[in-house]
Amino acid sequence: MTSSYFFGFAIRTLRAAPLINQVGHIRSFAAFSAITSAVILSFLLVLEPSWVGLRMIMGASIAGCFVVNESWLTNRATNQNRGILLSIYMIIVYLASAISQQSLRLGDPGCFNIFPYAGILLALSIVPIPLTRATHSDPVQKPQVDIRQLLFISPTAVLGCIISGIVLGSLWDLGPVYAHMQELRVNQIATFMSISVVGGLLFQIPIRCLSDHFDRRKALLTVSIPAMLAALLLSIGSRFNRQYVFKCRLF
After folding, report:
1. Do residues 104 and 187 touch, judged by C-beta distance below 8 A?
2. What phi and psi values does residue 126 have, to the nearest 5 degrees?
3. How far is CA 207 from CA 196, 198, 201, 221, in A?
4. Which tens digits make up the pLDDT trace of 133-180?
């Protein structure tokens, strides 16, 4: 169930360029957002075994939205402002992700009353795009992925991307399951996930400065060690008495 989303995300990332070049960024974003909204509302109508396929379609359409956003932004940016624009973009993405975790407080996640909120928000996200006066950006280049060449150029980067994908995928989809197994309440699970996202946001600038001033392999090792220790503490924390592990409950 969780892997199907990221499988669709990966496939669409490689196949989004032809569609964007054919109909343009505005229509592509509207199409991807509409598909995502329809899939979310479809969860209310179909049984759970079909959710695997729906999750894959959802991942593909959301990946298309990201490709539209980032390619359009990169195309409009200049060498003088590209860095700051991408930084602002990432801050907005992280903040929105952290805030969205609090949607669990809107209702019982075991029921279906939260799904319409997500569908409505995605439908509303389409509105500003057709109304923009901005012109279409240049065509998007189709990515040519050669894993062997990437491994030859920078094996550390490839390995880091693979491990990062495994870790982030597990955190996003299995983090709430882990928190639920630790007997956290729904509002505490929402805060648990938001804190994870905010942590990534706060460390964006320090890690970026670290990678600009030192060898990036050493910077990767420097940030990996604290992450490994934190994961280790989480993995063994459940073995202790929950009275002490969760004495300071998340609000």
Report:
1. yes
2. -75, -30
3. 16, 14, 10, 11
4. 766 666 666 666 677 787 888 787 788 788 888 888 888 888 888 888
> Where would I find the H helices in the chain?
2-23, 25-42, 51-76, 82-100, 115-125, 128-131, 147-153, 155-181, 186-202, 204-213, 216-237, 242-245
Per-residue pLDDT tens over the stretch 58-115: 999 998 888 888 888 877 777 777 767 777 888 888 888 888 888 878 777 777 777 8
The token pair that represents 209 in the structure block:
């400065």
| Alpha-carbon span 145 to 150, nearest angstrom | 8
Query: DSSP letters along 98-134, please?
Result: HHHGGGGGGS-TTSSSSHHHHHHHHHHHTTHHHH--P
Residue the block writes with tokens 């990996």: 224
Q: Which fold has domain 2-131?
A: Growth Hormone; Chain: A; (1.20.1250)
